[in-house]
Amino acid sequence: MSTQVLDSLSEDTVRRIAEERDEPDWLLETRLDAFDELDELDLPDVIQTPGRRWTNLEGLDFESLVDPLNQADVTERDGEDDVVVLPFTEAFAEYGDVIEANFGSVLDPQENYLTALSVALFTTGTFVYVPAGVDAEDVTIRAEMNSRSLFSQTLVVTEESSSVTILEGIESGADAAADVSPANADRYFSNLVEVAAGENSYVQYGSLQNLAEDTYTYTLKRGSTDTYATINWIEGNLGSALTRSDVETELDGDGSETQIVGAFFGHDDQHLDLNARVWHNAENTTADLVTRGVLDEEARSVYEGVQDVGRDAWNTSSYQRENTLMLSDDAEADASPKLIIHNHDTEASHSATVGQVDAEELFYMKSRSIDPETARNMLVEGFFVPVLEEIRVDEFRDDLEELVQARLE
Amino acid sequence: MSSEDLQDTDTEARFEFKKEQKSALKADKGLTEETIRLISDDKDEPEWMLERRLRALKQFQEMPMPTDWPGQPDLSEVDVDEIVPYIRPDVDVRAGVDDWTELPDDIKDTFDKLGIPEAEKNALSGVGAQYESEVVYQNMRDRWEEKGVIFCNMDEAVQEHEEIVREHFMTKCVPPSDNKFAALHGAIWSGGSFVYVPEDTTVDMPVQAYFRMNSEGMGQFEHTLIIAEENSEVHYIEGCSAPKYSAFNLHSGGVEVFVGEDAHVQYSTVQNWSKNTYNLNTKRAIVEENGRMEWISGSMGSKATMLYPSTILKGRGASDNHITIAFAGEGQDIDTGAKVYHNAPNTKSTIESKSISKDGGRTNYRGLVHIADGAEGSSTAVECDALMFDNESTSDTMPYMEINESNVDVAHEATVGKIGDEDIFYLQSRGLDDDDAKQMIVSGFIEPITEELPIEYAVELNRLVELEMEGSLG
């Protein structure tokens, strides 16, 4: 199906955004090209089984969600001295060439309707550049969304043998509700992230999304690895009414690696459509996908994991695990872990489970005089441990644990 | 068909021979209302069956071809207007004789070569044999008939057991609206088996039906209806084959199984269609309280297969086991799996899938497990293992899980890999050559399937696998 271009959008809108930001011509062209293609592009694929569509993106009323000229955010960016962490507008002068060379090289703006919309309209985001040999431990990007809609674009470029750890936190501003008119209307947040990891470089990109629950979130994060490079993603989703998240790595260089770690906790009637995908396009590559989530009340999770091993991906190792814990009878957990294997010199496996809090464990804790609710909460926190253990950044781990605890209370 | 006989037989020759194509009635190519009236009239069917056929035809014409399944086999060659939907073989007794010697020599010879009469003597309670569109032989041992067990061909059942067929035929289990090829099947079905097992009856030897397509460019659309009443038990085996032609053949069977309370039905298939056959089937079982359904499937043949035997666990405590093996060689796309709907509390299912792909073949496990809200205490375990031989081939795994209930136990696991070098080295150190070592490892890999089959069929399946493996190992 093809989606209609919004009546309220015009080429002028796109030009105005670009002009206000004083952008180079090539970026305006990229935006306009994406805008022109909107007519032709489809929404992202959604899993369909007989009689059921797992996520209803068509049901979103983009006409009322998208308000491109009133985007507002407060974003704090921190990094060490030898790494560049800037909004694009401040980076063009010095790093214009690097940005132009890499922008859209990993994530095609015309991938689908939502990416094209996002590239055409983005007004915030970050450019991270790590020069060769630099180790940057502690880059943080904390964004607050303060408008009806917000489109964000992030580009990470790492040069040879560098390393960087980036933490991205996304929340709704305290007074955000007041800025939405009419009051209580839904909001839309779009977040595109692309990572170009140079030879033998290491990128850890953690993203923790805890937006207000009147928000619809779309995020596509995609990285490409050069030889011996590593990209590790951590994706935490707790907020939003509906989240559609795609976290993907193209293992393009020999000997490169990726890990995609996901954690989610849905409650009320939240809908989480979470996807982790890896393409093994080169030799001796390794992937490890680990997702754990908890569903309470009427929340629903939809998970797709794809491990795609290409014809030339000799000596591949690829693993995937997904576990969902159901706290409520009204919740729903759908999962589809997929293997697409074109080379026999592969060791690949995946597993997925759905279950509830173990009755015996609960009984044991009660027998130790822990009250049932505390016992259950401890078991839920314990359920996240295998995922938390994969997170090597203390700050991110603490934040995630805090959010999980807050939700349990 | 004892195992010694099999060793002496050239398996490939047994399936590949072609008989001269002759018939008593052959419909024109293509699918029109006229064709359907011709088939129904030739079978002297009651009016309600003709009406159902015509309704199904309409549904078939309205439904689009399935093209949007992720990674699905290419069906662009399947042009139903090129298919000869109905060929009545030239035999005297319409309902199938019960003595092989009464069959025309060429047809008798066909089934002799396939080893069916021999198997009947040794291991089976009853045998049906279908040639082109009609069943030509049908027989069951007297002691089952005395107990009220019915095993007859489907066309005869429409006449002789009209009420029960009318109630169950493509109504609750596989309605024609299920998918385009179920609708096609509903319009032009012919032949197949009807099995009825009364209460408290255990048929302790399997019954078998064998389906043979001999003519080029034909379609075979047999319908199988199995009704197992309360506390009964039956094992049904189906085998299929056809010689290879340049034009495509289409097999679109329909299978409906009703498993009563505490009943147990096992449905085993060894499919060895020729590699120009499109095998697009719909198979489904409905299982009542504490009943048990087992699907055992070996898919060796066909150019493309799309087959996902489904089970609806309707009664409390009902259970389902799927064991499936797919072997795709050059030019083959075997897209198969299972579907299970847990619609009642304490229902259980297991799915075990094994696949082998080599020489550019593709296998895919495509499966769906749905646990409905309220099906508390249910559990499902899915295990898929795939073996690959080269990087021309493809091995996909696409499971879908829909879990609407919290008090459940759901597990899915899958692995893909190549034959371990260490395993081969070990066998070589014991004096086996490379080819034998690989064959032995493959036989071990599919053992969970073969051990579920009577020994004759297990040997058969192993022979087929060996045949596929021969001369192609590097």
TrEMBL record, chain A:
Any one GO biological process: iron-sulfur cluster assembly
SUF system FeS cluster assembly SufBD core domain location: 146-383
A Pfam family reported for this protein in Swiss-Prot or TrEMBL: SUFBD_core
SUPFAM superfamilies membership: Stabilizer of iron transporter SufD
Signal peptide: none
Cited InterPro entries: Fe-S_cluster_assembly_SufBD, SUF_FeS_clus_asmbl_SufBD_core, SUF_FeS_clus_asmbl_SufBD_sf, SUF_FeS_clus_asmbl_SufD
NCBIfam families, per the entry: sufD
Listed PANTHER family: FES CLUSTER ASSEMBLY PROTEIN SUF (PTHR30508), UPF0051 PROTEIN ABCI8, CHLOROPLASTIC-RELATED (PTHR30508:SF1)
Family of this protein: Belongs to the iron-sulfur cluster assembly SufBD family.
Name the UniProt record assigns to this protein: Fe-S cluster assembly protein SufD
From TrEMBL, chain B:
SUPFAM superfamilies (alphabetical): Stabilizer of iron transporter SufD
Gene Ontology annotations of biological process type: iron-sulfur cluster assembly
Span of domain SUF system FeS cluster assembly SufBD core: 211-445
Annotated TM spans: none
Top-level taxon: Archaea
Ranges where the SUF system FeS cluster assembly SufBD N-terminal domain occurs: 138-208
Family named by the database record: Belongs to the iron-sulfur cluster assembly SufBD family.
Name recorded for this polypeptide: Iron-regulated ABC transporter membrane component SufB
